[in-house]
Design brief:
The chain starts with 6 loop residues before the first helix and ends in a 6-residue tail after the last helix. The longest helix has 23 residues. About 50% of the residues lie in helices and about 10% in strands. It contains 23 helices and 13 strands. The strands form 4 sheets. It has a 7-stranded mixed sheet. It has a two-stranded antiparallel ribbon with strand order 6-7. Among the domains are: about 130 residues, Beta Polymerase, domain 2 (2-Layer Sandwich), CATH 3.30.460; about 80 residues, Hydrophobic Seed Protein (Orthogonal Bundle), CATH 1.10.110; about 55 residues, Serum Albumin, Chain A, Domain 1 (Orthogonal Bundle). The chain is α+β, with helices and mostly antiparallel strands. Bound molecules: adenosine-5'-triphosphate and magnesium ion.
Length: about 450
């Protein structure tokens, strides 16, 4: 097979080889070449020791950040290339990086330390494959299989549990049977893995096109770092709106959103508070009164545990909190919500509500879904027309209020909010003269 390899990578392989060392492309880029997908970076492994690699690239810009683990980064044509000496790894006791690495002279020993067969293939400059674990066959079959004995590999580094699920969700590959069983059995190894590492894999998993299949098959893995999910996974909902239990509904809702991390996280967590709010009425129908607020609180806690950035966490918590609100299909209600949430969050909320509906009994919610489309069209029009929906859009500001004789302080805000309320309700146009005359009416005693 002919592979397209960038000239920078070729040059590096050639330089090392001219100096008498072995050098191969390895890992994700080789896997992606075989999958016929453009690699996003090009990792190189070599028999050269780090100091020898450095002398080979003496005239280049070199970054030494990974030196302790045998990696140096060389800039070629402005692109960074990581060059790593063949190595084996010690244990991951700090759960971030191996405690130590041993440099070795044999490519196969280096490939053997890698996680999955598809990630343990090397390609030489001449295009020849070194594939001792049958990675190419597994790629063709769409299978994720551990290199070596699965249980042992997951015990060495629990993060591999999440990496397997991530590749499953992103590539739509199946997990080979023994690998899958070892994941269920060794999922508790995630306990020793740094939250930041889990976070990275979870984010990639959630935006994968087959996220639903993975959530369906491996809820037990997610419950390792988010035990709050457990009651949702087993939640039954005897309610005419719902044709599925809590977990299956959640999965359908996740699948119904575009591949956007904020939306997918929101759908994963939106009903997390339901189990603790469940009540059953005299007809045997289940209700979950007040669950959005509880879901929001739990989501906040869960996103903190996994060290999500503030912006993502706050946005998800807001969307979870409001996921169940009723938005009447009227301009003034839409303007109010646009103003309260801001347009970006508002449009995300419409996506959330649509996805939530897609996870319910379709016949019963299809009118609601059609209504959401109308709200979206109206909101787009309101925004496109530059209509006023927040204080900053108002044709007057605090200075105008003070100039009209109202003392600086909280009263100014009260007056402005009162004006905004009237504009939102369509009682007065967002027009400077009209608003100034209303301000004058506010304070008849002070006007002169
Ligand atoms: P991506 O396309 O997301 O970059 P990748 O497979 O290249 O996927 P990296 O984290 O860049 O993932 O790792 C590069 C290579 O290092 C992998 O292909 C694999 O061979 C090896 N590797 C990475 N993480 C582990 C791990 N936790 N255990 C064993 N091998 C690993
Ligand atoms: Mg990579």
């Amino acid at each position: 097979m002919k592979f397209e390899i960038p000239s920078g990578a070729r040059h590096i392989l050639q330089t090392l080889s001219d100096a008498g060392y072995e050098a191969y492309l390895v890992g994700g880029c080789v896997r992606d070449l075989l999958r016929r997908v453009d690699p996003h970076d090009w990792d190189i492994c070599t028999s050269a020791r780090p100091e020898d690699t450095e002398s080979c690239f003496a005239g280049h810009r070199i970054i030494e950040t990974g030196l302790k683990h045998g990696t140096i980064t060389v800039l070629e044509d402005g692109e960074p290339y990581e060059i790593t000496t063949y190595r084996t790894e010690g244990p991951y006791s700090d759960s971030r990086r191996p405690d130590f690495v041993n440099f070795v002279s044999d490519l196969e020993a280096d490939l053997a330390r890698r996680d999955f067969t598809m990630n343990a293939i090397a390609i030489g400059l001449d295009g020849s494959l070194r594939d001792p674990f049958g990675g190419e066959t597994d790629i063709k079959a769409g299978l994720i299989r551990c290199v070596g004995e699965p249980a042992q590999r997951f015990r060495e580094d629990g993060l591999r549990v999440m990496r397997a699920l991530r590749f499953g969700a992103v590539f739509g590959y199946k997990l080979e049977e023994e690998t899958a069983q070892a994941i269920h059995k060794n999922r508790h190894m995630l306990e020793h893995v740094a939250a930041e590492r889990i976070n990275v894999e979870l984010c990639k998993l959630l935006v994968g096109s087959k996220v639903g299949d993975i959530l369906r098959q491996y809820p037990d893995v997610l419950c390792e770092f988010w035990p709050e999910l457990k009651p949702l996974v087993t939640l039954k909902q005897n309610n005419p709106w719902h044709c599925w239990g809590g977990w299956e509904h959640t999965i359908h809702a996740v699948e119904a959103t575009p591949a956007d991390l904020t939306l997918r996280l929101t759908m994963l967590l939106h009903d997390i508070g339901k189990p603790s709010c469940k009540s059953t009425d005299e007809n045997g129908v289940d209700h979950f009164y007040g669950h959005p607020a509880i879901s929001a609180k739990l989501s906040d806690q869960m996103l903190r545990t996994l060290k999500f950035d503030n912006k993502t966490r706050e946005r998800v918590v807001t969307l979870v909190e409001y996921h169940d609100i009723q938005i009447p299909c009227r301009d003034r209600s839409i303007r109010k919500w646009l103003g309260r949430l801001g347009p970006e969050t508002f449009f995300q909320l419409l996506e959330v509500k649509r996805a939530d509906g897609m996870g319910q009994a379709y016949e019963l919610v299809k009118d609601r879904l059609a209504q959401l489309e109308k709200i979206k069209a109206k909101a787009e029009e309101i925004v496109a027309q530059g209509q006023c929906f927040s204080l900053k859009d108002l044709a007057v500001n605090g200075r105008d209020v003070i100039a009209a004789g109202i003392a600086p302080g909280p009263e100014v805000g009260r007056v402005l909010n009162g004006l905004l309320e009237q504009v939102l309700n369509g009682l007065v146009p967002n027009n400077r003269e009209a608003l100034l005359s209303l301000i004058a009416d506010e304070q008849p005693n002070q006007s002169n």
